[in-house]
## 1
Amino acid sequence: MAYKGSADQPARVDMFGISSYISGLCDFIADCETPMTIAIQGDWGSGKTSVMEMVRDSIDKRAVHCCWFNTWQYSQFNTSESLSLAFIESVVEDLGIGDGDSVKEMRSGISKLGNAMAFVGKRALVAGTELVVGSTTAADVRNAMDKIGNGDKTVVETISTLKERFQDCIIAACEKNKVDRILVFVDDLDRLQPLRAVELLEVLKIFLDCEKCVFVLALDYNVVVSGVKQKYGSDFEADKGRSFFDKIIQVPFKMPVAQYDIYNFVKKTFEYVAQLTCEDYDAKNFVALINSSIGSNPRSMKRLFNSFLLLLKVVGSDMQDPLGKKILFAILCMQQHFEGLYNHIVINRDDLTPEFLEQLANDDEDIETLLKREGIETDGAEPEKIQEFMKHFNRVLATDGETVDNNKLNQLRALLSSSSITATTTTTTTKKRATFVYKGDTYMARGANKMNLANFALRLILDYVKDTDKTADQLMDMINSEIPCQYSDIKKDGWQQICDRKNPSLNKRILEYYFTDKNEVVRIGDRELLVLKGWGGVYEINQLVEILGYSDVVSSNM
């Protein structure tokens, strides 16, 4: 099977069902008053460039001539002083009007400004720009009035002339191309350093105010605010960022990420990129996993699918049954968004139980306390988000409501072992098994022949009863009040770590969870107490050792 993967390139085909937004933008651009500046706002990877590409493809070329400038690409080969000039030169070139007088004057002005900046630095251009647009200080004016060469125009005069010639070029381009307006896309402004992005916007402000021009900028509002804050320093006020943004931008367009049709994207990606059949029910589960983890950021989803396709090649055909593929996809959602949870589960995969996975998803659990007790880092995620994700994770693992048996857990463990190659951070792939030594015997997590932690808890309680005069009620209260049962399907029925055999509500189903053989029953007087087989884990065992006062006679590697 050939898995093609998905390149991190702007999409030119609508896979998210946002055609109405594209159509609306195109209509607005074609009909609005000019000059007009539109900001396509959104986080990195949210699809800003894709929206601009689709607008460029869909706009009526009979009415609009398009130019494109990628600030980030140019910034890799231009110093910050020349980036703004590179922008002007690039746009004039894209207008396609040849070498007329206006173009020659533009090139001459650009050259002179370049020489000036080489001599007095970038600040001369910024100061001159601020003076032209009506916002500068006396010191900036003095700097801006420095002559360019021998008795030539000042920086301010050159910038003013440059704007006039740019306007002439725009009008000439409209006439030559028989269009009503020029549409200029400025991509990746928010990939520049915030201060640099703001300084570039200050320079561009002159040219954004040209008649017959519509500028569309890919820009994150938070980058603008950060850049303004860096520029103004201690004088920064919260509303300055907003004022600067509003001065530059007439129309903000926020990426409609919440309206993305993720279902359609998942189906098409599985079928066309992964070349795998994706049934409707599976697609809904995948969408639920995505929505509760990485969210609808297109770049994050492409990364998720590429990791998935890579691991399909790594794990081999033995693990590629339908359930295995679903489990692998769920693991990768966890890996990419809940890194602390993923690392914990990978490290402790040999000790995973269905009960622990259910605990993480159960609404009755205090999820924050559970995560802290297990030492699971949340990486800034809300504990409730982890709980919500685990509901969908367990639904995939249980396959339509079936139980999570050992075969499924073994499949999960095997896939966890392979999945670490796509993790961003290095994960310790194995953990030393928890071991406790008591009276010459060694008990460990998942130990064999009754030498596991549950049997160890039982033995400690049996030995303690021999050395104490506590009543059955006192013993139960002492243990259950300090070490609550972590098995949610038992706890919700009112059962705890240790219980009375004569409890009238103890039924056959509940009884299966407790030690009941003759030598396993804890006898105090005429009372018989039962101890839970599935003792919670290392944390609970350590608590039990401390409560019973056995810290001096129990050694552990934990």
Note: The chain has three domains: 19-256, 261-422, 435-556.
## 2
Amino acid sequence: MAKYLLVLTDRQPVQHPVTADGLTIGHARDVDVVLSAPGVAARHARVRLHGDRALVEPLEGAIEPRELRVGEEVTVASGVRLRLVESGQPQVQLAKSPDALSFDALTGADPDRAVRFQRRFQLLMQMARTVGAGTDYQGVLDKLMDVAHRGLEPERAVLAMLEADASGQGRIRFEAARHARSEDPWHDLHVSGTILGRVISSGEAFIVADAAAAEQLAQAYSISTQGIRSALCVPFHWRGSVAGALYVDHRGDANYFDEDDLDFLLMLSQLATVALQNVQDYEMVRDEVRALREAMGGETALVGDSGAMATVRQLTGKVARSDLPVLIQGERGTGKELVARAIHALSSRAAFVAVNCAAIPETLTESAFFGHEQGAFTGASHPHRGYFEQAQGGTLFLDEIGDLKPPAQAAILRALQEGEIRRVGSLETVTVDVRIISATNRDLEGGEFRADLYDRLNVLRIDVPPLRARAEDIPQLAAHFVGGRVKRISAKALRHLRDYAWPGNVRELKNVVERAIVMGDGETIWPEDLPPSVREHGKEGHYHLMSLETLERDHIIRVLRHTQGNVSHAARVLGIGRLTIYKKLKAYGLETRDFKD
């Protein structure tokens, strides 16, 4: 089994392969293991393999000869210990930090080494600037290769990443490369897979002074065929684990790299990791924003730049990353379904199924939500998949959840608790994976709505503001609804739109704009194209020279609010026909459900 010399100093431990030819230790540049600790001579000692042991022999250092067995160690200078280990034994993990590159270590050092430290410090500062520069991923890779090339002057530099393959074993992918002797960075990239694999699997840095003389490495294909003499390789960490390695080599000279070079490469790897992770996080957020904008475009637009809408967008982006239930609250016409669709569009879920709970007859609730088998009841002529099965793997949007009757609430609560449903007329259960997004214009707490179901639905919550609370968005909304069909909205007409209270919120604004486009006969929407109620009714509710049509409209609205949108009841109070009320509502740009509050 291969033997390695583990060098333990006040820095981090580094292992070197030890052979019968031996390793030389000292502070001279041409030794195998360069040390700068106090008391280390230029050619301090030699460590060579003898059978299954290592012999430590003094050269210029004041030490006694020593024989080491595997696991034993010896102190050869102040703060320098040597330990003999075998391949496969647990090794000390390297965790270098920028503190390791200390100019205190240069005290008493030769001027050339000081100049080299100064130049490398400047290169590391250049790399550090990419951490928060917001550059692109390839730009960081280019800077990494440039700094490695200028700082170490290797023949070849490679960033290798480990990626999964079909066999599950993983393969090495070259992410970036640089070649000193070729303008093509990908030219002649037969680097040492043995060294890369060892560093990636162990998570430890590796330095070899003369690969051809190392017994275990000399037999490797890349070492023997490519003539690699000296190499450095350090682990490349990605979000807490080793995901690759940063490698440099030289095929001309042995002893080309020393421990100072290893320190530099370790710090460069750490800086590059942070920079690339920042770029990836930035690109992920940018993609989410782009997807959010796309999801909020067209018919599902969440239009408006007010602070209230900025909050809604922010919450929408956050809750989309989760599969937890969402409760959307807001007055009728505020766009609760648009928010639900935007959440779904930003998620990775499949189908989006929208259900108006107020429109489901109580007797058909279970069939509608859970489906039925053929012959389960009169009229069940064929099997039917309910809303839960239709939304399998996707999102089930329960609009007006507050209108569900108590039996339906109990059935949905059971389905949410158990994660499974049973079709009407069937004895078999079906497991469902459905995300629930519900919406209501009511306060569900403290009323007839089941508290346990409310707790299930109200895990994440978004409150959609009424239009009167974000009047600054009205011009942008109006322009959005115009959609290029007219060229402009006059300033006076826009002022009327801003001053109106909008009891029907965004839906009513859309209807008013649609009506104005139809009623107008030019390229501009004028005040005369707006309904009288919008022209003559201020935001505070005061009447200004109100016409008979406006008085009639306001009276009908007050009665409908009193009857909670019950047209039959309102018709009896007003003494007019139901059809007349429906015609009036259409002219006003309103619907009966706008008054169910």
Note: The radius of gyration is 37 Å.
